[in-house]
Amino acid sequence: MDEKNNSGGFMEFDFRVVFHNFINAAKHLLWIVVIITILVGCYVHYTADRSYSPIYRTQAIFSVHASYSATTDILSNNNFMDKSAALTLSATFPYVISSEHASMLMVRELDHEPRGQIVATATAEAALFTMSVTAGTAKDAYETLIAAINVYPLAASSILGDTQLKVINCPTEPPTTPINTNDAMNSAISAAIPVFLLGLLAIFVLSLTRKTVHSAEDLRKLVNLKCLAYIPSVHLKKHSNTANLNVLVTNPRVPSSFNESVRNLRIKIQKQMAQHNAKILLITSTLPNEGKTTVATNLALSLASEGKQVILIDGDLRKQSLKGTLGIKASSDGLIEILAGNSKNFRLLTVPHSSLLLLSGDQTIDQPHPLLDTPRFKHVLELLRKKMDYIIIDSPPAGILSDAATTAKYADATLYIVRQDLANSTQILDSIQTLAAHNVNLIGCVLNHTQAGTTRYGYGSKYGAGYGYAYGYKYANSYTRYGYGRYGYSRYSEAENRAKKLTQEIADTSEAVEAFDFSIVDTNETT
What we know:
By secondary structure, this protein is of the alpha/beta class. The chain has helices at about 15-50, 80-95, 100-110, 140-155, 155-160, 185-210, 215-225, 255-275, 290-305, 320-325, 335-340, 370, 375-385, 405-410, 425-435, 465-480, 490-510, 525, and strands spanning about 55-65, 115-125, 130-135, 165-170, 225-230, 280-285, 310-315, 345-350, 355-360, 390-395, 415-420, 440-450, 520.
């Protein structure tokens, strides 16, 4: 591995990758944007609603007639004098209505100060004079208008002279609707939309700055390790309570593309292990949820389907999960009891419908390092090495725990799992450099959980659609021949007998671990 590589600028710009990053980031962060948007919208709506004050307006229209006008037709072409009088009244109205005399008359008429704003306008096309009142309540607007109608002729008598006002349109009741609407909802929407768009922009910027792995080329530039296989993302829907949701090559519901990717990985692992004369393979990753347990389990099943003697060891003593992955409910002792010397029953479990052996326990421990860093663990592995073709160890994530580095020193080779677009490139680089510092033999990486169209190189980008169908029938037959589809009673009995014999041989060996009784547990009968 070239440790001189760094995470800066390792990934070239690719629209598909950016789009994938954006969608992935949106899945995790969009709810935060939505909540912030809703909170902002609710706050703006609340403040706008609290500050809203309805305004009511009512008005009366007068016709203006000058005493010297020759006609009473206000729409006549000869009513120029009436129009002039209307304009004069409109211009002088503010002074008249605000005069001390008018104010006194208004108070006398209303029994209180006027509660509204009174304005007057003249209609240019006709000798019309409009008086309007706006107020905070419909009642105040109406009462103030009626009072102004009654008071104005008296207050403006000196201005009116012989000019006569005639009310031609006067309201008979207060207005029912305000002239201004409550725009709280529109204000909330207007504030929420920019917040939501800014949130999307922030997610997009974040997706541009994410330095994660999407392809074999990214891995090569980052850590100079070969990508041995792409493992496609598989999501099994639960059609019933008894539906098998385990993503295993033994599950007929798993698509053929997944089985084919595991088969390709198995072939490359066999080649790599043969080149290094290796038997013990440790599988780790940077972070949890990268799929190392799924890869380890399916690789072990695939190797066992070839007739190889394979044992899968649950090396994550903080969270043992292999039995759950394989659907095994039998109780058993695992590495914790064996390494601590508290077990008299080394329970090698048989995996249903496979010749694969499993070493996994029920207990967990918070600090497994003292147990793993003992000669006893090495002794157990050496015993298994003599009788097994492959020993697969599923270890904890190397990026957050030192357990993987401790266990890896007993392994012949280490396979590193990288889930597409999960761990940061710096985290991956630091984790692999930590393993390299312990002289771990890293034989390659697996790009796991790949999405269609994002790997950019190789057939991994086709896994999501179509690829599996081209090879499905051919390799379905191959897996049936290897035992994934046609593992009948007689063949399973043969595998069980072989496992029991192997267990007894281990128990009878002169180098057997003291105080341990190696026995086999039939998980088909126990479950």
